Amino acid sequence: MKFLDKKGKLFGKINIIDFCVIIIIIVLAAGAVYKFKFMDKTSNNTAMQPVTYTVKVEKVRSYALDNIEVGDILFDKTSGNAIGTISNVESEPATDYVEMDDGSIVKGNVENRINIILTVDADAVKNESGYFVNRTYELLIGSQKKFMTKYFECDGYINSIQE
Fold first, then answer.
1. Phi then psi for 12, rounded to 5 degrees?
2. Do residues 47 and 37 make contact, with C-beta atoms less than 8 angstroms apart?
């Protein structure tokens, strides 16, 4: 018996293209089973615990501060999921490095810009991989994300995480 016959069928029974499609479907199904059954990052029976983290938003105009209030819910812009409640809002002058006429580099204030530090309270699961808000949103110090509230949208990064 030949591997491929004149019509392009494997062992005279199934077309080679149909065989490839079946193999791809089997591999995708096996991957889905592995992901959802065996790769459970955050177990559903793990208790949630309160976590406080800070988000730093750099070099925004001062009127942005007026659009953020304590008690606002913070959302992840990409997924649209709530990732905590703002418990404190602070601001500081924005700074940046500037090259002077003599070639030296100095750190100075950026005109008409401030940095906003948001303190956010959330419930998260802690495991060996880190903290997961809503069991899916991973908190990593230094990770840059798109955040939003009801009246404010920005790019910021997670500055610190505390239990």
1. 70, 10
2. no
Determine the Cα–Cα distance for residues 143 and 155; give it in Å rounded to an integer: 11
Other beta carbons within 10 Å of 72: 20
Confirm whether pTM is higher than 0.85.
no
Contact in structure between 79 and 146 (CB atoms under 8 Å) = no
Which tens digit of pLDDT belongs to each residue from 145-160?
Answer: 888 888 888 888 888 8
Q: Which contiguous run of DSSP H or E holds residue 64?
A: none
Helix (H, G, I), strand (E, B) or coil at 62: helix
Q: Which residue type, as a one-letter code, is found at position 29?
A: A
Name the token pair of 105: 């580099």
Amino acid at 20: C
Cα–Cα distance for residue pair 55/157, rounded to 1 Å: 6
